Amino acid sequence: MNPEILFWIVPVASIIALAFAAAFFFNMKKADEGTDRMKEIAGYVREGAMAYLKQQYKVVALFFIIIAVIFAVMAYFNMQNDIVPVAFLTGGFFSGLAGFIGMKTATYASGRVAQACRDEKDGLNKGLQLAFRSGAVLGLTVVGFGLLDISAWFLILDNTSLVEAEGVSKLVQITTIMLTFGMGASLQALFARVGGGIYTKAADVGADLVGKTEYHFNEDDPRNPATIADNVGDNVGDVAGMGADLYESYAGSILASAALGAAAAAAAGSSYDDALRAVMAPMIIGAVGAILSVIGIYIVRTKPGANQTELMAALNRGINFSGILIAIFSALILWALGINNWLGLWGSIVIGLIVGIAIGKVTEYYTSFEFKPVKFIAENATTGPATVIISGIGVGMISTCWPVIFIVVGTIGAYLCAAGEFAFTAANMNQGLYGIGIAAVGMLSTLGITLATDAYGPISDNAGGNAEMSGLGEDVRSRTDALDALGNTTAATGKGFAIGSAALTALALLASYIEELKIAALKLGENFQVVGDITSAQLAKMNIAEFMASFDVTLMNPKVLLGIFIGAMLSFLFCGLTMNAVGRAAKSMVEEVRRQLSDKDVLEGRKKADYARCVGISTQGAQREMVVPSMIAVLVPIATGLVLGVPGVFGLLAGGLAGGFVLAVFMANSGGAWDNAKKYIETGDAPFCGKHTPIHDASVVGDTVGDPFKDTSGPSLNILIKLMSMVSIVTAGLNIAVTLL
Amino acid sequence: MNPEILFWIVPVASIIALAFAAAFFFNMKKADEGTDRMKEIAGYVREGAMAYLKQQYKVVALFFIIIAVIFAVMAYFNMQNDIVPVAFLTGGFFSGLAGFIGMKTATYASGRVAQACRDEKDGLNKGLQLAFRSGAVLGLTVVGFGLLDISAWFLILDNTSLVEAEGVSKLVQITTIMLTFGMGASLQALFARVGGGIYTKAADVGADLVGKTEYHFNEDDPRNPATIADNVGDNVGDVAGMGADLYESYAGSILASAALGAAAAAAAGSSYDDALRAVMAPMIIGAVGAILSVIGIYIVRTKPGANQTELMAALNRGINFSGILIAIFSALILWALGINNWLGLWGSIVIGLIVGIAIGKVTEYYTSFEFKPVKFIAENATTGPATVIISGIGVGMISTCWPVIFIVVGTIGAYLCAAGEFAFTAANMNQGLYGIGIAAVGMLSTLGITLATDAYGPISDNAGGNAEMSGLGEDVRSRTDALDALGNTTAATGKGFAIGSAALTALALLASYIEELKIAALKLGENFQVVGDITSAQLAKMNIAEFMASFDVTLMNPKVLLGIFIGAMLSFLFCGLTMNAVGRAAKSMVEEVRRQLSDKDVLEGRKKADYARCVGISTQGAQREMVVPSMIAVLVPIATGLVLGVPGVFGLLAGGLAGGFVLAVFMANSGGAWDNAKKYIETGDAPFCGKHTPIHDASVVGDTVGDPFKDTSGPSLNILIKLMSMVSIVTAGLNIAVTLL
Fold first, then answer.
1. B370: number of Cβ within 10 Å
2. For residues A135 and A26, what is the distance between their CA atoms, to the nearest angstrom?
3. Suppose B520 and one of A44, A68, B364, B733 were both cysteines; which one would form an S-S bond, judging by CB atoms 3.0 to 4.6 Å apart?
4. Is the CB of residue A508 less than 8 Å away from at least one CB of chain B?
C-alpha cells in the first residue's frame, strides 16, 4: 500500500487519543466530589501539586532558553540545523504539557475516586473505573501529543523547503532533525523525574520517620503535617515524572527507529518509497497501538464486590487485549506497507513485546511477597535493620541478572530478525540496528494503556489518603486499600517496563548518534576529509561499520576505555547526588514535622497541622537539589566530547548505558523488595508479624531506605541513559569538529 | 648497561626480601608471649585461623586440579602452551604460601604485641615495631615470592629449549606464557578474598548484632561466643585475603608489562637487546622497590610515649622514604638500562606512584571523620538508621568520581609519556599500553612496605582483642587502642590503593589479552587466515590496532555492546551473591550467639563460651558460600567467549572493569565511612555522642551494613576485574577458535 496514505493513520490516531483523553477528563470532572472535608483535602493536594509544577517549570524554562540559544548559535556556525532550536522547544513543550494535564487530572480524580468508593453496592467497580480512566488521561495524552508532534514535524519538513536535500537523503535529514526534538523531551523528563523524585521522597521519608516510626501514626493520619506533601509527592513523582519519562522513551524510540530506517535505506541504496516505508513503519505501529490502547481501556471493568484477583484480572484483560492485538496488527501493517523483510521486522516487534513482559515478570518475582526473595528479606528483619539492608541490597544486585540477559538476548534477536540472516556483519548492521529500534517501538506501542495502569496507582493511593484524612468509614477505606494494593503491583511492573524500554531506546539512540555524526561530517564542508582521503561523496555512501572504522572506536583505543569508565562512574555520581538530595530535603522535613508535633495541640488533633509549610519544604528542596545532577547529566557528555572526541563519547554512552541500566534495576528492585517485605510482615502471614514490633520497625528502615532507591535515584537513571545519548546526538557537530579538525 | 647483568637484581632482591621476612619472623617468635591466659587466647585464634585456611586450601586445591587438567587438555589440542598448566600451579602455590606465612606470623604476633604494650616505659614503641615488622613479613613474603616465581620462570624459559622461537619472538612467547602464572595467583586470590571476606564478616556481624546491639557488650568481651571467630576473621580476611589480592596485582602488573614491552618491541621491529630491556624494566623496578621497602621498614620507629600523630608520622616516614627513593632510583634504572625513551617511561612510573597516593588521599577524605562526608553521615544518625544508610550510600556513590578521574587522567598520562608524543595513534598504541603497565608497576613497586602497613592493622586489632580477653589493665588496652586506631586509617588508604592498583593492572592485562590472541592465532595454524587474506606472517608483524581491526571490536558491534552489559551486570551479581552469603552466614552466627547467651552462666561470665562452635560456623559458611561466586567469575568469561567470541569478551572485560571498579570504590568507601561515622559518634566530639544512645545505635546499623561492603563484596571485586582478564588470557586460544574458525 502507498506509505503516504497509511501515514495519515498517525495524525488521526493522535487526535483520537487526545479526544478520548479529553472525554475521560470531562467525565471525571462530572463525578461527585464528596463532602466539604473531602473537597478541602483534595484542594490542598491540588494546590500543592500545581505550586510545585509551576516552580519546576520555571527552572526548566530557564534551562530551555539557555540551551535553545546555544543551539541557535551552533546552527549559525553550521554545526546544527536551523530548525533544531524550534524542534527542541516543541519536544519539551509537549512533554511538559502532557505531564501537566496528567497531574491536573490525577489531583481532580483522587477525591472523586474516594467518593465513588462510598457507594456500598458498586463502589469498587466505580472506583476502579474512575481511577483507571483518569490514569488513562495521562497515557492517552502522552501518546497523543507524542504522535502529534511527530506527525506535524514530519509533514512540515517533508512538504516545505526547510530541508534542501532530495529523495532518500531528504528523509535521512528530516529524521535526524526530528531526533533532536527528543532532546527537549529528555530534558523535560530529567527535571520531572529528578525534581519529582526528590519532592516525593523527601515528603515520604519525612512523614514516615517521624509520623510512623516515632509517633506510630497510621499512613495518612491528618495530624501528620507532612501527609499532604506526601500525597502531593505521589502526583508529582509518579504521575508527572513517570509520564515525562515514558513520553521520552515513546517519542525517542519512534524517532530513533525512523532515523535508523532512513539510514539503512540510504546505505542499501533503496528506492525513495522503500526508504519512506522504513521511516513510516515505527510511526504507524505507534499510532495503531494508541488506538488499540483506547479500546483496551474500555475493556477494563469489574463486577460489584470484586476481590483483589478479579480487580487484577480486569486490568490485565485490558493490557493483554491491546498487547495481543498489536502483535497481530503490526504484522498486518508491515505486510500492507510492503516493507522489505516484513516478517523479520515483525519478529523484532514481537521480541520487543516479549522482553517488556519478561522484565516486568522478573521485577514482580523479585519485588512481590508471593516469592522467595522478599520473604528472605522479611526473615532477615528478625535480626534487625542491618540484615534487612544487607539482604535487600543482595537481592537487588542479584536481580540485575535476568533483565540484562533479556535485554541482551532480545537485542541479538531483534537485530538478527531484522537483518534477515543469522550473522552480525558490517553489511547488515544498518538493518540490524533498525530492528533494535523497532523492537523498542513494539515494546512501547501500547503505552496508552500501560501508562494508564501506572498513573492509576497514585490516584488510588491519594484516594485512600483522602478517605483517611476526611474520616470516611472503614468500609470505604478498605475499598480504596484494595484499589491501592493493586496499584503497588502495577507500579513495580511499570518500573521494570520503564527501565527496559529506556535501555532499548537508548540503544537505538546510540545507533542514531552515528547518523548524526555522518550528517554533521557532511555539513562541515563539502570537501571535508574524514580520514585520509575520504571525500564527503564517499562518506555519504558508507555504511555504519565503515564510517565507524574511520574513528577508531575500538575497545583498545584508550579514549574509548576511559569513556566507559566515566560513563559507569557518572551513573553512580548521579545516584549519589540524588540520594543525598533526598537525605537533605528529608532532614529538613523531619525537623519541621518534629517541631510541629512538639505542640501537644497538633499531636492530639485539636489544632490543624500546618500542611503548607511541609509542602513548601519539599518544593524548595526539590527545586534546589535538582539543578546540580541535571547539569552534570547535560554537561558531562559535552565535556567528554570536547576532551576525548567521538571515541570518548561512544565509550561514555556505552558505559553509561550498561552501568546505568544495571544500577537502575538494582535500585528499583531493592526498593520494591524492601517495600513489600514490610507489607508482608504487616499482613501477619509471616511467622513474625504485626505492626510496631521490633521486627516491623526493622522492615520500616528497609522501606525508608528503599524510597529514594525506587522512586528517585533508580528512575532518574532511566532518563540519564537516554539523555546522554540525546545530548551527544545534538552536539554531534561539535564532536566531529573536535575529533577531525 | 647490559640488561642480562641488571636482571640478576631480581632474584637477589627476592632472596633479600625473603631473608628479611624470615628474620622478622624469628625475631618476633623470640618475643615474650605473656601470661598463660594470653597464650590461651592467642592459641584459640591461631588454631581457628589455621583450621579455616586448611579448609580453604582443600577447596582451592580441587579447583586447581580441575583447571590444570583443562589446561593440559587445551595444551594437547595446541590451544595453549605445554608449560601453562605447571606455570599456573606455581602461581597459585606461591600466592597461597605467602598468605599462609603472613597469617601464621600475624597469629603468632598479636599476643606478643599485647605483651609488648605492657611495658610501661616503652610499650608503644615496642608494640608498634613488633606489629609493624610482623606485618612486614607478609609484605616481604609477597614481593619475595612474586619476584622469585618471575625470575625463576624467566631463567628457565630463556635458557632451555621449552620455547622454540628465537630472538624477539622468543621473548614475546616467554612473557605471554608467564602471564598465565598470574591466573594461578588470581584464582588463589579469589578464594582468599571471597572466602576470607565471608568468614570475617559473618563473624563480625554476628558478634556485633547480638553482643553489642542486644547485650551492649564492649568489643572483644570474652563472654561473647563469636569474639574469637571475629579475631580469626581479621587474620583470614585482612591478612591472608589482602596479601593474595596484592600478590596478584604485583605479579600481574609486572608480567603484563613485560608482555606488553616484548610486544611493543616486536611491533616496532626493535633489536633483541631493546626488547630484552623492555621486558626487564618492570622486573628490575619491582626488585629495587623490594629492597627499598626493606630499608623503609627499618626506618619505622617512634619514641617512648609517642602520641597518635607521632605514630602516624613514623609509619608515613617509612612509606615516604621508600616512595621517594623508588621515584629517584627508577629514573636511574631506566637510564642505566639504556631503554628507549627512558625519560617518558620514568614519567609513567611517577604517574603511577602519584595516582596511588591520590586515590589513597581521596579514600581518606571520604572515610575519615576529620572531613565533611563522614560528619554528614554522623549527623544523619540523629534521624535514625534509615538516614544513616541513605547518606552513606550517597557519599559512597559520590566518592567514585575522583578515583575514576585519577585513573582516567593517570592512564592518559602514562600512555602519552611512554608513547613520547602527544597523540593516541595506531602506531604508538603498543608503546602507550606498555606505559600503562609500567605505571601499575610503579604504583606497586614499594608494596613490601605498603602491605606491611595493611597487615599491621589486623595484628594490632588482635593485640587489642587479646588484651581485652586476657583482662589486662586499662593502660595496656589504651596502648593497643592507639596502635589499632592507626591501623584503621592505614586500612582505608590500603583499600583505595588495592582498588587503584587492581584497575591499572586489569587495564594492562586487557592489553595483554590481545597479545595472547595473536599468539593463539599464530599457533592455530601456520597458514591460518585471520580475516580475508591475512597470513600468519603478516599477522606476526601487525600492531595492536591493526590486529584488533580484524575482529571488529568497535562499539557498534552489538556483541561488544552486549558484552559490556554482561560485564557491568556481573559485578553486581557477584556482589549480590557475596552480600547474601555474608547475610546467611551471619544469621547462623546470630542464632548461635543468642543460643549460647540465653544461658545465664555464659552471660554472666561464670561459664566459658563455646568459641569453637562459632569458629566452625564461620568456617563452614565461608567454605559453602564461596564456591558459587567463584565459579561464576571463572565461567562467565569462558561462556561469553564461546557465545559472543572475541568482541563479546572484549566488551565483557571493559564493562566488568569499569563497572567493577566503580562499584568497588563505592562499596569500600561507603563501608569505611559508616565505620568511622560510628567511631566519630563514639569519640564524643560530635554534638551527638556517647555509646548506647539511639543515635549511636543508628550508626551501628550503618557500620554493620558497611562490614560486608568494605570487607567482602568491595575487595572481592578487585579480584573479579583482574581474574576475568586472566581467564580470558588463558582461554584466548578458545576465543580465537570460536571467532575465526
1. 11
2. 13
3. B733
4. no
Count of beta carbons in the 10 Å neighbourhood of residue B484: 22
DSSP B628-642: HHHHHHHHHHHHHHH
| pTM over the 0.80 mark | yes
Using 50, 70 and 90 to split pLDDT, how confident is the model at B534?
A: low
CA distance A53 to A50: 5
Closest CA to B560 of B650, B659, B660: B650
User: For B134-171, b where at least 16 C-beta lie within 10 A, e where not — what string?
Assistant: bbbbbbbbbbbbbbbbbbebbeebbeeeebeeeebbbb
Search chain B and give the residue with CA nearest A543: B556
CB < 8 Å to A582, chain B: 390
Nearest to A564 among B415, B426, B658 (CB): B658
How many whole angstroms separate alpha carbon B741 and alpha carbon B736? 8
AA letter at A321? F
Mutation to test the A interface, candidates B201, B376, B390, B512, most A Cβ within 10 Å? B390
Question: Is 80 exceeded by the pLDDT of residue A426?
Answer: no
* Chain A residues near residue B507 by CB distance under 8 angstroms: 561
CA distance linking residue B662 with residue A673, whole number of Å = 24
pLDDT per residue as tens digits for the range B81-112: 788 888 899 999 999 999 999 999 999 999 99
SS3 A403: helix
- Which chain A residues touch B381 with a CB distance below 8 Å? none
DSSP-derived 3-state class of residue A386: helix
Q: Do residues B454 and B135 make contact, with C-beta atoms less than 8 angstroms apart? A: yes
Q: Is the separation of the CB atoms in A518 and A542 below 8 Å?
A: yes
The DSSP output letter for B226 is: T
- Rounded to an integer, the average pLDDT of A372-396 is 93
Q: What is the interface pTM, i.e. ipTM, of the complex?
A: 0.92
In chain B, residues 417-456 whose CB comes closer than 8 Å to chain A: 424, 426, 429, 432-433, 436
A544 closest CA partner among A259, A175, A253, A267: A267
A343 in contact with B at a CB cutoff of 8 Å? no
Q: Which of A210, A393, A548, A700 to mutate to test the interface with B (most CBs of B within 10 A)?
A: A393
**Using an 8 Å Cβ cutoff, are B372 and B428 in contact?**
no
Q: What is the DSSP string of A99-143?
A: HHHHHHHHHHHHHHHHHHTT-TTTHHHHHHHHHHHHHHHHHHHHH
A397 min Cα distance to partner chain B (Å): 5
Task: Name which of B556, B669, B688 to mutate to probe chain A: the one with the most chain A Cβ atoms within 10 A of its Cβ.
Answer: B556
Q: Is B407 on the interface with A (CB under 8 A)?
A: yes
Q: Look up residue B126 and give its three cell numbers.
A: 615496642
On the question of pLDDT at B532 being above 70, the answer is no
* A389-405 average pLDDT score: 95
A78 vs B694, more confident:
B694
Provide mean pLDDT across the span A234-261: 91
